[in-house]
Design goal:
By secondary structure, the chain is an alpha+beta fold. It is 45% helix and 15% strand. GO terms for molecular function: ATP binding; ATP hydrolysis activity; ATPase-coupled intramembrane lipid transporter activity; magnesium ion binding.
């Protein structure tokens, strides 16, 4: 780089910072500036594409790592003491010895950090060195050109959000020359984009051409770094973000750090230890002062100052205060933090290698992403769960539909699903078998050719299982195979209302973002793709119908003024009919073509079974497969067109003018197309009933439209009560002028940089009015395996379960009963209101009744089985500042809460409210992007790696594949992790206090001079080597109760909730026990050797030995499940103590402690003193355990006793215990899902008025009763 004035460099750097900080960024092509030096490059102020995720360099590692480690106050504390020990006047022992513990801790942590950073360095080197066949390395690209003639690029974003379904990205049109070939130099405009951010689903940009025309671009035009291009030969783009500014790098925040509740409690107890240490040091300082004052003259072994004067007693006692701190510093357990990290690593290893938490279908096991909160899994009090994909399979199965007010129940399909529900049936075999029967149904829904044998079909199915669609989401046979309703088939064959039926199924086929690809090969170009279409599986049925003469060859024709349109219609055998005065402009097409009409192509066709529908949601996939079952097959989709095949075999290619994507505010999506025959602008919309019904117009006349809407709403209510997910399907025909006016508004919104989202939503709302209702759909999302059992187990464990869902209340309530969140005997409070005054009245009334129940003397020891159902609108009012306390008071008295129609923001607000108001440990579990806020708001977030990508998993602390795994994760591993770590921490405090108190008691006999009766090296070795490993093994491998008992008796989980085993009381009991044991370990040898001629180190040796035996045997009493590992480590520690002490005595010949242990070991008194002292020291704790476990055994002790019984006897005892305690195992076989209301016997089970609903449902039919 050429020399540059330093001031110019500073000015350029300042300008670069200003350019990077701007909300809008102007970028131009670098190609015209190639060959120039960097200072002349127009985009030089923005980062290059190289990334660096390492924290250190070779030179900066040591200072930076030490700086980071000294952020931990404990490290600063011990370093300060080590430095203080270098001051001669306060020196307690050799300065070098004081440095050993903290140096070992810092070195171990530094080695771990260096290894992690080296792994990051190798990853960066590999990524930065990836070969690329583009103009620059991978970055966030504004797509300009692709190998597809339509400018389409299919990508997979699994590396970013875990979604494996293909997504479309399209080139920005008209900004550079692309024909006959792409010319990069033709990009002469300015690309204006927003400041880099981490939102993977949002991007604002426009390209300003030389003529000042602005072309808007969004996320659909952006190729993100980390995504994989599929079925596209090449893609060319303009770099908008590079290096660390790419969205993938901005989302790479590294491992999250959370402080567990146990760690918070630990810090409090460390503070208590500091207070205790200072108290002991003050006692030592005062004792030293009194000792000096009481002496007639200064002892001869006190050295004078340099001027020959002696320190005064006051100054000497002041110095001894700091010397005592150095001597007794081990009271603060420096090695505890490292031990905790080692224990958590071991716990995570056992969790991730648990085969019961492995899901064979997805080939995934549990992931632990937050390494420091494993013990919090054992203290959960509230669980907040999503429904779809979390409690349910997220496999959407088309069940029922309503078209123009007529309901089609699809009974044959219901029978098929009922057979699949049998646990011993294989899904793929069942689908192969159902194709054989009933014979009459085969032409209507079989997807195999008629001449194939059943054996060939079954073998083909087995061969294709997990292969053809193994990488395609929402493509299991359960979701793709649908048996059409015979009544609806006959209706389609008829001639009445054929326009609405055609539009209904066309809406199902095209009103989505589904991408069509081939299952066994790369997706060909669209021009070739359209020539390889096979006849529909309903062709056979159509031909039979035609031969029978049950369908007219053509409908009566309607003469149009435009001859071109008539010609188009006759070319494909479609006849248009309608009335010029039709208020909706509704014009229809026959579903069948004349037998004389030729097909569009005569080339060999490809089976439609080889189509793959890449959907972004399971609902879209279910509706597309439903349309396919009736012969409306989605053949291809490009940014500008969508091709659909009709049951007759005719193909319609609709011009796609715009797609109004779904958002959480509108609760609907629309696609605006131009009909290939009528040339009309048609808007197809689907969405939630409450967002659609209020937008309906009266295209069929006010009376008819109201009747259709009323009947459809009744059907929707029935679907919801059956637990089905519902959608309304509508249509709207726009005039030419109406479309042209709206298109201008839409383009302005798309090219805007300020308030783009608001303008885009307003443009969508503007056109989505006066809709024509076509019908509704009901899709089933089945519960996952073992969900009811898991929820009941969690509730028995003392955990309150809340379900937060966006579904309708009726749907949510039905699922609530099915998953046993709600019970038949529950008092269910259903809250729904439209104004705040009513909400206040409901809360006050309900709280009064609940409190009255609790205050009744007859209900002192009982808990009311109360459940609350509340919708999102009421929830917003209930969480207002003046009502939230009353709402929380009511909610905490409920056994379960079901929140319906809630938004992602409301989910997180509910979690925060309960966590902050009740001070409880919360866990949130979900599977989709809409659950991320809730997951991050809870103390522990659990993501389920379902079918909607990995956004929830990426934001979570733990990831599982099935909801049922939550049972063992919490009840077994959570309990073990908390119990092990809590007991290990208490033991660590006890161990250090018991050992350091020996030094404190000795001060009373040495004038509080801060001297030790042991060699300083042995003091260091005691905590660093002799007693370090057994507690770690205790924390990793101890097991108070077996997994079978913890799963069989979920009540045992309650021992960890609230204060749990590690509380203020248990801490101080252990500290008092440590003081008692240290007194015994010191004074029994003291009085034994009193008056003898042994020296100070000969006296200290039995003290150290007794302390070792007492501490290790104390641990032996606390161990609940002995293993070979425990025995090896404890015996190994004893052996290591004797070996090192003996070797140390031999090596240091000039040391005053030479040969002391060897001399003690030949004296029988040594063994007698050690034995008696150890027994007396441990006797109180041992007797306490014996009496407690015999007179008042805890549930854990009782469960441990049951663990020793034979399996059959143990299982019988568990059943009796659970029955006595109100368990659910006796009711499981009797539980049944509430009967779904039929359309013929529809009854409104909810008392509704214009203001509110407050229902209390008690009996199994959920009939509401008043208070």
């Amino acid at each position: 780089m050429p020399w540059m004035n330093p001031l110019a460099r500073i000015r350029d750097a300042w300008q670069g910072q200003k350019a990077r900080d701007k909300d809008l960024r102007n970028l131009v092509s670098n190609l015209p500036y190639e060959g120039l030096d960097k200072m002349k490059q127009p985009n030089r102020h923005f980062p290059s594409n190289g990334i660096k995720t390492t924290k250190y360099t070779v030179l900066s590692f040591l200072p930076m790592n030490l700086f980071e480690q000294f952020h931990r106050l404990a490290n600063l504390y011990f370093v300060g003491l080590a430095i203080l020990n270098f001051v001669p006047v306060v020196q307690a022992f050799q300065p070098e010895v004081a440095l050993i513990p903290i140096c070992v801790i810092l070195a171990l942590t530094a080695i771990k950090d260096a290894w992690e950073d080296f792994r990051r360095y190798k990853s960066d080197k590999k990524l930065n060195g990836m070969p690329c066949l583009v103009y620059s390395s991978p970055a966030d690209l504004l797509l300009l050109y692709t190998s597809d003639p339509n400018g389409v690029c299919l990508i997979e974003t699994a590396n970013l959000d875990g979604e494996t379904n293909l997504k479309q990205r399209r080139a920005v049109p008209g900004v550079c020359v692309t024909h006959p070939e792409f010319e990069p130099d033709s990009l002469t405009g300015i690309v204006v984009c927003e400041k880099p951010n981490n939102n993977l689903n949002h991007f604002k940009c426009y390209v300003e051409k030389l003529d000042k025309e602005k072309v808007g671009a969004g996320i659909v035009n952006l190729l993100l770094r980390g995504c994989t291009v599929r079925n596209t030969d090449y893609a060319i783009g303009f770099v908008v973000y590079a290096g660390h500014e790419t969205k993938s790098m901005l989302n790479n925040n590294g491992p999250r750090y959370k402080r567990s509740r146990l760690e918070q409690r630990l810090n409090i107890d460390v503070f208590f230890c500091i207070i205790l240490l200072f108290t002991m040091c003050i006692i030592g300082s005062l004792g030293h002062y009194l000792w000096l004052v009481s002496m007639p003259s200064m002892p001869i072994y006190f050295f004078p100052q340099s001027n020959g004067d002696m320190d005064t007693p006051s100054l000497s006692s002041f110095y001894k205060f700091f010397s005592m701190i150095i001597l007794l510093q081990v009271l603060i357990p420096i090695s505890l933090y490292v031990s905790i990290e080692l224990v958590k690593i071991g716990q995570i290893y056992f969790i991730t290698n648990d085969l019961d938490l492995y899901d064979e279908e997805s080939d995934t096991t549990v992931q632990c992403k937050a390494l420091n909160i494993t013990e919090d899994l054992g203290q959960i009090q509230y669980i907040f769960s999503d429904k779809t994909g979390t409690l349910t399979e997220n496999k959407m199965v088309f069940r029922r539909c309503s078209i123009m007010g007529t309901e089609y129940p699809h009974k044959e399909n219901a029978v098929r699903l009922a057979v699949i529900n049998k646990p011993d049936e294989d899904e793929d075999v069942l689908f192969s078998q159902t194709r054989q029967t009933p014979p009459t149904a085969k032409p209507g829904w079989s997807v195999d050719s008629e001449d194939s044998s059943s054996q060939e079909k079954q073998s083909e199915r087995r061969r294709s299982k997990g292969n053809i669609n193994s990488d395609v989401a929402f493509s299991s046979p359960l979701e793709t195979e649908i048996i059409p309703d015979q009544k609806l088939l006959q209706q389609i064959r008829g001639t009445e209302k054929i326009d609405a039926y055609l539009d209904f199924f066309l809406a199902l086929a095209i009103c989505n973002t589904v991408v069509v690809s081939m299952a066994t090969e790369k997706r060909p170009r669209t021009s070739d793709f359209e020539q390889n279409i096979q006849s529909n599986p309903l062709d056979t049925w159509s031909s039979l119908v035609k031969r029978a003469g049950s369908v007219r060859e053509t409908l009566s024709s309607w003469t149009r003024s435009r001859a071109r349109t008539t010609s188009e219609a006759s070319d494909i055998g479609l006849t248009i009919q309608g009335q010029p005065g039709d208020p909706a402009g509704v014009q229809t097409c026959s579903l069948h073509v004349p037998r004389i009409a030729p097909l569009q192509d005569t080339t060999p066709v490809v089976s439609t079974d080889k189509f793959c529908y890449e959907a972004e949601s399971p609902d879209e996939a279910a509706l597309v497969h439903a349309a396919k079952a009736y012969g409306f097959i989605l053949l291809s989709r490009t940014p500008d067109s969508v091709m659909v095949r009709l049951p007759s075999g005719a193909q319609l290619t609709f011009e796609v003018l715009d797609t109004l994507t779904f958002d959480s505010n509108r609760k609907r999506m629309s696609v605006l197309v131009r009909h290939p025959i009528t040339r009309q602008y048609i808007l197809y919309t689907k969405g939630a009933d409450y967002s659609i019904m209020e937008l309906l117009g009266t295209p069929y006349g006010e009376k008819l439209q109201k009747a259709i809407a009323s009947d459809t709403q009744q059907h929707l209510d029935c679907y919801a009560k059956e637990g089905l997910r519902t959608l309304c399907i509508t249509k709207k025909v726009l005039s030419d002028s109406e479309y042209e006016s709206w298109a201008v508004t839409r383009q302005q919104a798309l090219s805007a940089m300020d308030n783009r989202e608001k303008l885009i939503m307003e443009s969508a709302v503007q056109i989505e009015t006066n809709l024509c209702l076509l019908g509704a759909t009901g899709v089933e999302d089945r519960l996952q395996d073992s969900v009811p059992d898991t929820i009941m187990a969690l509730r028995e464990a003392g955990i309150q379960v809340w379900v937060l869902t966006g579904d309708k209340p009726e749907t949510a309530v039905n699922i609530g009963y099915a998953c046993r969140l709600l019970e038949q005997e529950d008092l269910v409070i259903n809250m729904s209101c439209t104004n705040k005054v009513t909400c206040i009245s409901i809360l006050d009334c309900t709280l009064e009744e609940v409190r009255r129940y609790s205050d009744d003397p007859r209900n002192v020891d009982t808990t009311p089985d109360i459940s609350l159902v509340i919708d999102g609108r009421t929830l917003t009012m209930a969480m207002s500042p003046d009502l939230r306390d009353r709402f929380v008071d009511l909610a905490k008295r409920c056994r379960s809460v079901l929140c319906c129609r809630v938004t992602p923001l409301q989910k997180s607000q509910v979690v925060k409210l309960i966590r902050e108001k009740l001070k409880v440990m919360t866990l949130a579990v979900g599977d989709g992007a809409n659950d991320v806020n809730m997951i991050q708001a809870a103390d522990i977030g659990v993501g389920i790696s379902g079918q909607e990508g990995m956004q929830a998993v990426m934001a979570s602390d733990f990831a599982i594949s099935r909801f049922k795994h939550l049972k063992k994760l919490l009840l077994v591993h959570g309990h073990w992790c908390y119990s092990r770590l809590a007991n290990m921490i208490i033991y660590f405090f006890y161990k250090n206090a018991a050992n350091v108190n020996l030094l404190f008691w000795y001060q009373f006999f040495c004038g509080f001079t801060a001297t030790a009766m042991l060699d300083h090296w042995l003091l260091i070795f005691f905590n660093l080597i002799f007693t370090s490993a057994p507690p770690v093994m205790f924390g990793i491998m101890d097991r108070d109760v077996s997994a079978e008992m913890l799963l069989g008796l979920p009540e045992l989980y309650r021992t960890g909730q609230g204060k749990g085993e590690y509380s203020f009381l248990t801490f101080w009991i252990s500290m008092l026990d440590a003081f008692y044991q240290s007194l015994v370990a010191f004074f029994i040898p003291y009085y034994t050797y009193r008056g003898s001629d042994i020296d100070i180190f000969a006296f200290g040796t039995p003290l150290n030995t007794i302390s070792l035996f007492t501490i290790l045997l104390h641990l032996s009493i606390e161990i609940k499940a002995w293993t070979v590992v425990h025995a090896v480590f404890i015996l190994g520690s004893v052996a290591l103590y004797f070996i090192i002490t003996l070797a140390y005595g031999v090596m240091y010949l000039n040391n005053s402690g030479y040969w002391h242990l060897q001399a003690q070991m030949v004296d029988p008194m040594f063994y007698l003193v050690c034995f008696i002292s150890t027994v007396v020291a441990l006797l109180p704790r041992y007797l306490f355990h014996v009496l407690k476990n015999s007179i008042a055994p805890s549930p854990i002790v009782q469960a441990r006793h049951l663990d020793t019984l034979e399996p059959s006897t143990r299982d019988q005892w568990i059943k009796e215990w659970r029955s006595f305690r109100g368990g659910v195992q006796d009711k499981t076989s009797d539980v049944s899902i509430p009967p779904s209301p039929s359309l013929e016997s529809f009854a409104d089970d909810f008392i509704m008025d214009d203001d509110f609903t407050l229902n209390v449902m008690t009996d199994k039919n959920h009939r509401p009763v008043s208070f």
